[in-house]
Write a structure and sequence with these properties.
Helices cover 53% and strands 10% of the residues. It has two helices and two strands; from the N terminus they run H-E-E-H. It is elongated, with a radius of gyration of 31 Å.
Length: 121
């Protein structure tokens, strides 16, 4: 049902944009910028503003995502820097392949401890 409502809303928006373009297609507007003056049809100006806004919004979201990833990477590297190193335990002697049990026969070990997720993510 939600899909039908969204589709219906999308169709209404498209029809409204078409109606706006037909009604105002002959309107010419002047867009005065600091070093530039543009004379263009009103629907084209509105369309360009919508596309520009979408592009600016996408650029700002991309920049914020990069900043958040950088901050999360810094937090993770700082957390790793303060963790004590794990002592590696090696077996005292190397076993021959005939003495090694298959992994399926071995009892499952305790699951590794999970660290809490970063509050930045």
């Amino acid at each position: 049902m939600r899909f039908v409502m969204r589709l219906l809303a999308f169709v209404v928006v498209i029809l409204a944009a078409f109606w706006f373009s037909v009604r105002n297609g002959s309107e010419i507007v002047n867009v005065v910028l600091p070093f530039l003056r543009i004379r263009a049809p009103l629907p084209l100006v509105v369309f360009a503003c919508i596309l520009g806004g979408m592009g600016l919004s996408g650029l700002l979201a991309w920049r914020a995502e990069r900043r958040a990833r950088r901050l999360a990477d810094r937090a993770a590297s700082a957390r790793r820097a303060y963790e004590p190193p794990v002592a590696a335990e090696f077996p005292p002697e190397v076993e021959s392949p005939a003495d090694v049990e298959s992994p399926a026969a071995a009892e499952p070990a305790d699951p590794p401890e999970r660290s809490e997720p970063s509050p930045l993510l």
